[in-house]
Amino acid sequence: MALGPRLDLRQSQSLVMTPQLQQAIRLLAASNLEIEAYIGEALEANPLLDAGEVRMVEREAPPESAEPQVHDATPGEGDQALDIDPTALDRDRDTGDWAAQPAGALGNDDLPDAGERSDDDPTLAEHLEAQVGAASPDRHTELVARHLIGLLDEAGYLPVPLREVAGELGLAIAEVEQALAVVQSLDPTGVGARSLSECLALQAIEADRYDPCMRRLIENLDLVARGEFARLKRMCDVDDEDFGDMLAELRGYDPKPGLKFGGGSSAPVVPDILIVPAGEGWDIRLNEETLPRLVVNRAYYVELRNGCTDKASKSWLSEKLADANWLIKALDQRAKTILKVAAAVAKAQDGFFRRGVSELKPLTLRQVAEEIEMHESTVSRVTSNKYLHCERGTFELKYFFTSGVASSDGEGAVSAEAVKAQIRALCDAEDPKDILSDDKLVELLRDKGFDLARRTVAKYRESIGIGSSVQRRRQKKLQGVG
To answer: Keyword GTP-binding, does the record have it (predicted)?
Structure first.
């Protein structure tokens, strides 16, 4: 077979990511605060755009309907929600279940309220910097102390060895030790410590309780953790009453004094979606306070068009008008898509909004996508960086997507979050003299309708910060001594 050059004419189809499609994807995944910042930039760049007032569309919710009533806070052009064709995009990784579990335990009234986050308080570094000048004996020590403050972790501990700090600054270790003493004299007491024992010792010294007995107790915190109280009483040479007082004093100290101050990096959470009861259903709105309404200034456009005399000016004006119209339509489609997803979530998790986390049901992206007839990658983008505020607090939208476990009656699955809430309730109510093992928790959960393996119960228990039966028995024993 001979090889040689030749010309062929072929026809094919392909999907192209246009700048408009790329921008629509970014708008869909952005939060209301990010949209607000983007709109501010658009208003500066496009003279045809103006910020209008938000007009609410008032509709009465039918009193007999349990369906969510969607009120659109950003009316505009078109009625189409925004559904991005996934074949034009990279495969989205968030296409399965979420087991959204914030740190800490969850109960019916112990839910992760994201609205409580704020960075208004001063950071630990700012709090210490304000004190170090007056506490330092000279300018040189003050500068070294400020350097040490910058090395502290969020809990207030100094994780870097003093010898390393001295070598970095080219100073004698005695100078660094003097500066560390200044830092450790600042409020809150315990900052600048290099270990838990030193942190508690500083607080005991401040309280004038650092006698030889307390010193030996603090030096043997590992024995305290293991509950070896008889051995500790012999080491400290105290009776039961004095030992109980020492433990009570120790429990009153703060092992992480720096955590009471703001981290300085977390921004306050502003909800994107608001949901309130409306008759037998729900009234769902976008948070209009963070969504200024864009309009095209038609009068200014006509004035500019009449003043355009050359082709380049007319082309520029037409481009700005097209950009303005596209942005208004894209924002309107984004709003409708978010409200559509939020309505589906409210319908699926009606029990949660009415009765709490014990009624949270398993929910996946695919279920919501099928309900609203969109692709699950679109739902994934809608739930990214979005927060929903209801009577129970402010929650990340992803929180409502949770995996499920089989029920013992075989009639369906229950939410993993509901199971965790039950485990928390059982452990909180257990008798200190009869700590529940994981096998016992399995039995009690089965009686409540949850069919779980022992390994699954242990996994859920650990995920909400509850220790093993041995750890809980030791902890309750420690609490009983005090």
So the answer is: no
Question: Band of the pLDDT at 199, cuts 50, 70, 90?
Answer: very high
Contact between 419 and 452 under an 8 Å Cβ cutoff? The reply is: yes
HSE (side-chain half, CA atoms, 13 Å) at 368: 34
Both structure tokens of 279 = 């008759």
Average pLDDT score over residue span 227-236? 87
More confident position, 261 or 38: 38
b (16+ CB within 10 A) / e for 59-94: eebeeeeeebbbbbbbebeeeebbbbeeeebeebeb
In order of 15, 23, 28, 89, 326, the CA distances from 18 in angstroms are 9, 9, 16, 11, 13
Label residue 202 by pLDDT band (50, 70, 90): very high
CB 62, CB 281: distance < 8 Å: yes
| Nearest-angstrom CA–CA distance, 290 and 272 | 8
Q: Kindly provide the b/e burial profile for residues 95-115, where b requires at least 16 CB atoms within 10 angstroms of the residue's own CB.
A: bebbebbeeebbbeeebbebe
pTM of the full predicted structure? 0.52
The DSSP output letter for 349 is T
Please state which of the ranges 50-59, 278-287, 365-374 shows the lowest mean pLDDT: 50-59
**Residues ≥6 apart with Cβ < 8 Å to 281:** 61, 62, 65, 66, 67, 68, 69
CB 448 within 8 A of CB 482: no
Domain at 404-481: CATH architecture: Orthogonal Bundle (1.10)
And the tokens for 440? 């016992």
**To 5 degrees, how large is the angle CA 293–CA 299–CA 301?**
90
Interacting residues of 457 by C-beta distance below 8 A, sequence separation 6+: 423, 438, 441, 442, 445
Please write the tens of the pLDDT for every residue from 461-475.
Answer: 887 888 888 778 877
**In contact, 192 and 182? CB cutoff 8 Å:** no
Kindly write down the DSSP assignment for every residue of 148-205, as one continuous string.
HHHH--TTS---S-HHHHHHHHT--HHHHHHHHHHHHTSSSTTTT-SSHHHHHHHHHH
How far, in Å, CA of 27 to CA of 19, rounded?
12
- Provide the 8-state DSSP code for 434: B
Backbone angles phi, psi at 119, to 5 degrees: -115, 25
What is d(CA 367, CA 382) in angstroms, rounded to the nearest whole number? 14
Spatial neighbors of 390 by CB under 8 A, at least 6 apart, are 275, 276, 353
For 385-443, write each residue's pLDDT tens digit. 788 999 888 888 888 887 666 555 544 566 777 788 888 888 888 888 888 888 888 88
Q: Which residues contact 349 (CB under 8 A, 6 or more apart)?
A: 359, 360, 361, 363, 400
So where are the chain's domains?
A: 19-100+107-117+268-356+384-400, 124-260, 404-481
